[in-house]
Amino acid sequence: MFLVGLTGGIASGKSSVIQVFQQLGCAVIDVDVIARQVVQPGYPAHQRIVEAFGTEVLLENGDIDRKVLGDLIFNQPDRRHLLNTITHPEIQKEMMKETFKYFLRGYRYVILDIPLLFETKKLLKYLKHTVVVYCDRDTQLARLMQRNNLNRQDAEARINSQLPLKDKVRMARHVLDNSGEWSLTRRQVILLHTELERSLEYLPLRLSVLTGLAGVASLLYLLTRYLLPSL
Ligand SMILES: Nc1ncnc2c1ncn2[C@@H]1O[C@H](COP(=O)(O)OP(=O)(O)OP(=O)(O)O)[C@@H](O)[C@H]1O
């Protein structure tokens, strides 16, 4: 099995593309969903956040108030770093668990949906492929204004706060151009899925796990056949 990181810009079409991959039966892990999950009450990161930032970050029902926490770390690199040291290892652990489940179910590749893939760069080393969902700036602006009911100025501000999509395109191995009609994007997704499914890059991990299992089985066999009877 191998990992594919998918990213893009605000309103560039990531969720729409992910839906097609899911319709095609692909395994998808949404890193944002995991990030929200690991700070829920009962998870270790929840308690550590309260210890570090105080009970003022709690809502009445015990959930973390993301807005208050966001304000507390805004323009505070030390606090942001502290929060990241609490949450990132938990997010990675959950991702590994999910990935392992997909591995056991025989998936050849797993898509990690990571909006800030190229900004944080943390997960790049685990990925065999990177995919950027791109659309030209005017289209991105128009879709963002329409979807979020924003005026041009606010929509531009949101786009400008992100790493430019053109830079992400340069860093990615695959680009899905979502500037045009949806049917054209859908076709690109299907072609990419076919390419990834045909790739033999899933074999090394599968073979090494099988070899490991065969080794353990042989050892157990030798133990029971030759050592244990003499005890
Ligand atoms: N090819 C397309 N043609 C027309 N509309 C599109 C196309 N692709 C996406 N859209 C629309 O553009 C908007 C943004 O798409 P989508 O929500 O998939 O983007 P996103 O990258 O997941 O956004 P975000 O990260 O901001 O949540 C949605 O309203 C979607 O329906």
From TrEMBL:
Organism placement in taxonomy: Eukaryota, Metazoa, Chordata, Craniata, Vertebrata
Protein's name in the database: Dephospho-CoA kinase domain-containing protein
HAMAP family in the cross-refs: Dephospho_CoA_kinase
Source species: Galemys pyrenaicus
Gene Ontology BP term (one): coenzyme A biosynthetic process
Signal peptide: none
InterPro entries xrefs: Depp_CoAkinase (IPR001977), P-loop_NTPase (IPR027417)
Entry-linked SUPFAM superfamilies: P-loop containing nucleoside triphosphate hydrolases
Gene Ontology molecular functions: ATP binding; dephospho-CoA kinase activity
Protein keywords: ATP-binding, Kinase, Nucleotide-binding, Transferase
